[in-house]
Design a protein that fits this description.
By secondary structure, the protein is of the alpha+beta class. The protein has helices at residues 17-31, 67-80, 87-90, 109-112, 115-125; strands at residues 5-13, 36-37, 41-43, 54-63, 96-102, 105-106. A hairpin with a 2-residue loop joins strand 5 (96-102) and strand 6 (105-106). The termini are far apart.
Length: 127
């Protein structure tokens, strides 16, 4: 049996956010039935000139998948929701799924310092 990993992820969207985040949550709930979601937070964009607010939500899950397998799966969900290579350049993000931590290893330390991530993580801890 493969080792189980504890993971924290954050999803976000600033374009048809309720639709695309709902789709991502449905797919992630199906794949990882024990996933635990924090509350959805509305935040202003950071590091972009696009003024459109984001919806963000953090989740905690347990899986035997490694980080690369998780990232690949997350990218497939992003693409299914309309994410393209131009999305970041235009500031229109249908869906972004970031694997922030696996076990006790922070994979995206710069993201962990962003205000919207901290807000989403606070919402996760409250549940």
């Amino acid at each position: 049996m493969k080792n189980m990993h504890q993971c924290i992820l954050c999803i976000g969207s600033n374009y048809r956010a309720e639709t695309y985040m709902g789709m991502a949550e449905m797919l992630l709930n199906q794949r990882f039935p024990s996933i635990r979601w924090g509350k959805t937070v509305k935040t202003l964009p950071e590091g972009t000139t696009c003024p459109t607010p984001y919806l963000n939500r953090a989740a905690r899950l347990d899986t035997n998948w490694d980080a690369d397998t998780l990232r690949h799966y997350f990218k497939s969900i992003e693409k299914a929701c309309g994410r393209t290579s131009l999305s970041k350049q235009t500031g229109i993000i249908p869906l972004d799924i970031d694997l922030l931590m696996i076990d006790n290893t922070v994979l995206k330390p710069e993201d962990m310092q962003k205000h919207y991530v901290r807000q989403a993580l606070e919402g996760l801890e409250e549940k």
